Amino acid sequence: MTIEVLRPGVVVPRAGILRRFRRAVLADPLALAGVAVIALLVVLAVLGPWIAPYPGQGAGESDVPARMLGPSFAHPFGTDGLGRDMLSRVIVGARPALVVSLLVVGLAMLIGVPLGALAGYRRGRLDALIMRVTDLFLAFPPLLLAMAIVAALGPGLDHAALALAISWWPWYARLARGTATSLRERPFIEAARSIGVGDATILRRHIVPNSITPLLVQATIDIGTVILAAGSLAFLGLGASPPTPDWGLMVAEGRAYVLDQWWLSTFPGLAIFVAVLAFNLVGDLLLDLLDPRGTK
Amino acid sequence: MTRFIARRLAGSAAVLLGLSLITFALARLVPSNPAAVYIGPKARPEDIARVAQELGLDRPLPIQYVTYMLDMLTGDWGTSIGTKRPVLEEIVGRLPATIELILAAMLLAVPAGILLGVLSARWQRRPPDLVVRVVSIVGVSLPAFWLGLLLQILFFRTLHLLPLTGRVDPDLRFTSPIVETTGLYLLDTALSGNWVAFRDVAWHLVLPALTLAAYPIGLIARMTRASMLEALGQDYVRAARAAGIGERLITYRLALKNALIPVTTVVGLTLAYSLTGTFFVEVVYNWPGLGTFTVKGLLNLDYPVVMGVTLFGAVGYVVINLAVDLAQSWLDPRTRVA
Prior knowledge:
The structure holds two protein chains of two kinds.
Chain A: H1 17-27, H2 29-51, H3 55-59, H4 86-92, H5 94-122, H6 124-138, H7 144-153, H8 157-183, H9 187-194, H10 199-210, H11 212-236, H12 247-255, H13 263-290
Helix pairs in contact in A: 1-2, 1-13, 2-5, 2-13, 4-13, 5-6, 5-8, 5-11, 6-8, 7-8, 8-11, 11-12, 11-13, 12-13
Chain B: H1 2-28, H2 34-39, H3 45-54, H4 61-73, H5 87-122, H6 127-141, H7 144-158, H8 172-175, H9 185-191, H10 195-232, H11 235-242, H12 247-285, H13 290-299, H14 303-331
Helix pairs in contact in B: 1-14, 5-6, 5-10, 5-12, 6-10, 7-10, 7-12, 9-10, 10-12, 12-13, 12-14, 13-14
């Protein structure tokens, strides 16, 4: 499902990237909106329980007399079948959404980056082996492998996150391999090798730190895609279980009432959409900055 | 060209072999007790022991893998716990509904995406470009399951225009039954001249196809735009412009032809995406295809079904990628070296 991929092998100088990013964001209203939404998401994820009008209901407490109320001043997003304020549920849901996607991307990087860096640095048979395995994982249609893994492990938020990470790491392996391949010929690496620095140290001290910018950019872009993927798994019933305020799960729960209580699915789904959109808008700009000849 | 095809075929065969290793591992190694998983949640201990022996789980892993491969190759993909019928039969039976949906979505997405991309590139950094950029990025950000629900609210509940779910009105079974030959209802009804049913099938297809098409439209538009911009910057375009050839002719006759070559890759990619994208669309619209079947299998822990569909989808994905590669090498001989 990854739509935006940095081309492997693009080595980006770290210096000045933040300044260039700031200037570019200010010049592009769409990206600026994306940055604003991401900032809002982070604030909600950190302070959600204090911002939500009914924090208890956000976490799952019910208020049955107030069930199935349409959007009103007291409940802007309406209430659900247990009388819980949907606005609070959506706000409190920002934290699990962000935490899960950070976890998935972090785990995928943890598996993919060392393998990719090793493959690109050592080349030869080890490289061929690692990359063939990578290709195998990429040979599954997006999300299908994750679904099969969840089926093998059993549904649940932790299993869904693990399954997504297992199907995501090959992208990072590819990217890390590309940068490692181009870095290994650089004079400073050759110099390190010539004075007898070991491979492990070169990888840890020189290769990985110098490939970190494109990797972090890809990770930023991927967070949105993972929010969408995790939401999709949750919608099918393969992710979080009630009463977790999970956006995908909330859309699924509201589906049965979609014709009469349209707000139940509409607002949590809107939250997923806006979050993914924001990351994609910013990702677009980042790709453009790092690799002007790329897709845009 | 023959050598290229042979090499690509051999490569695909190797990938398929590797894929079977992964699905084998998922089926036999990940669950702590594969027999218990295979037989379903309500199994008694003696049943589990019997199934473990039947499946050969007491034998060494390499032998298990060889048996698994032989079963797959001879079409024995196991039996569904839910329907008690052979998994492969169930998959093949539900395939036409899914193929019809995917084809309809692609017929919508490919021309629309290419058109949007071309417009965007031709008016780069002007209002049409901005509009297309927004449309395409919205397209790739929309959760398909949510878009489906929104379209249902709008077109069924508010406008009373289109049917809510299903592939065909159940009453038609009595008034004008569909004669199935291909399983693609639009084609079947057209072939038998059953225009009442044709109209009904088409109405049922609109919303699911539109929902499934949103992501491909966005992706194809983005790729076409990038590819067009690159083509429009080439020397032959500048030469044509210098020679006084009109902008319209340059865009559609010269640049578009060359820009479309990379777009074939994206079309293949989105086709492959639709293999799983259709799962969500089918669930929302109660579409009687492979997706609803798989999701039901996932939720009921119908293990043979899940593993069967995973392998089937992976094989389909490999085949699509192979077809795209071959199409591209036919269109652009330069790619044959790779």
